[in-house]
Amino acid sequence: MGAAENFDLFGIDELDSVVPLAMPVGFNEEDSLDDKIAATVGAIKAQMSAGKHIVVACSFGKDSSVLLSLAIQAMEELVAETGTAPKMFVITSNTLLENPLMDNYSLSEAAKVRAYAKAKNLPIEMRIATPNTSNNYLVNLIGGRLIASTPDAGRKCTVMMKIQPIERLKKRLAKEMGYSKKEARDKFVTLIGKRYSESENRGRGMRASGERPDVPVKMVRDKQGKAYEWVMSPIAHWSLDDVYYLIAYVRNDMITTYSDFEQLVEIYRTANEGQCMINVYAKGKPASSGCGSRTGCHICLAVKDDYSMEAMLRDDQYAWMRPLNEFRNYIQRNHFRIDKRNWLARTVNEDGTITLAPNSYAPGFCLDLLRYALTIDADERRAAARLGIAPRFQLLRLKDIIAIDFLWSRYGYQHALMACHTANEVDNGKRWPIPAADPNESYPTSLPSIRKVTLPFGDREYGHFAVGFMDVLAAVTDTLDPFAVPTGDEFDVDEEGAELFWGFELENALERYGPVDDDGTRRDGEFSPSNGAHYFLRMGTVSLFKGSEGEFERMMQMSNQIHRHGLRDILNDPEALIDKLSQHGDMLPAAGGQFDIEDLIRLSRSQSGKGIIAKEVTV
């Protein structure tokens, strides 16, 4: 297929067996830009000529914008020569948490791609991949399912918000084109805008994975070799100067493409206080070190400081984004505080014990995050209304609030429908401003070294069929199958159902199951968190991933156990958990000997009353 030999990501020994020592003219770093343009366009066109559907992965940053312009040029040349070309797909991702300026810019550029393709009669489709409810990062963060990604903790956020949504979109495209899974693997070639010279680590990684600018490489995604895709890096050998000069060509009308790149330059200029790309089209040579800007997710903790957002905020015209930065910084300040973590594991051991260690965010912290996020959204709606414009960003939609409520029910984090109750309070004027950072307080930057403490957890009710998956209300009323729940291809909240619930059923639901009575009295203990989950399933507003019923049963058992033992409000306090769990007389006998509460209290206080850092203890 005019592609490199099969390349196994799991078994490469010699780089020379993948990357040839001598490359054709136009594919070497030292070649002229004109040679590089001609060679790159030719390589992409060759794949189109072979009948391959090109998929351009595009973020509309400088590198991917240049790549997209070259791919469009290749298609234009092929159509001019032959009158036709295989359909090309341009894919970008919207994480739902993008820097608002970048988000609006990307949507604008996507519209330009569609308009250009239509004007030139080119078979190009623009698609935008968004995370589903299961991969909605902020929903999972506030819902207590995961913690923020930090520099030392990997980039699970990228997998959730970008990689998996794009993979799902690719599968959908193949199905739309009528290809089987096997056919699709060899019908599509994905173009990515990575370059060897971006950084030493990037270059090393690209060469280790065998990426090439001239032909696609078969990227194997599993050890069996059954999951793979063809990937090509057409500008891998381009320098930063090359990228800048091609942008300059476009801005000076030397090359015509889908965009004039004016917004692109403005985005980089804004993110770097006017210091980057201003002189891109001037005669002087741009700095090879690059601009260093990042205009990704406004909530990102994978970088220590969001310099681009902070640079923007120094310009008064972008002050409306300040709450987003404050929200991000609040999470960062509290991320490693162990009193903001849930200390109870999510799995009960076979002997009925459970492990104490700081893991996900604590219920109180999650509730605070929801309050701040909803307040930010409400304030933005009000500010936009005063300006006569649409809101410039939105952190949480109605379906996201319901998803958070469902997750809180799943984990026993809050009273039933607490998220909906909170959103309703905000709708009625209540606000929770984000606390300012204390300049005299130092915030932890890592968790302490902590060893496990194992405590008894299961009792004689734990595991009973009536306190988990079963909808007791449905069983009692004998109107619905108590074990029937809506399922689908993924965990999801029906968008139309969410709107109908909010417009017609919210008041009734809060009156029946909500955390507060009509007179304002809290209903602590009256309803278990699982009541909220069963309610949304009974209404058909929420659907489970098909086949996950067993996992749902397990988590509902834990949720109800947390509720019965009154642990919700002390999940962030290991000493209180130790004391509480030790006082239940109906606990099943724990394996491992006698329960010594004094030893465990002493362990808990070994970190100034804030954690457990000692030898493992089984009780």
TrEMBL record:
InterPro entries: PAPS_reduct_dom, Rossmann-like_a/b/a_fold. This is Phosphoadenosine phosphosulphate reductase domain-containing protein. Residues 54-248 form the Phosphoadenosine phosphosulphate reductase domain. It comes from Marinobacter nauticus (Marinobacter hydrocarbonoclasticus). Pfam families: PAPS_reduct (PF01507). It comes from the Bacteria. Signal peptide: none annotated. One of its GO terms (molecular function) is catalytic activity.
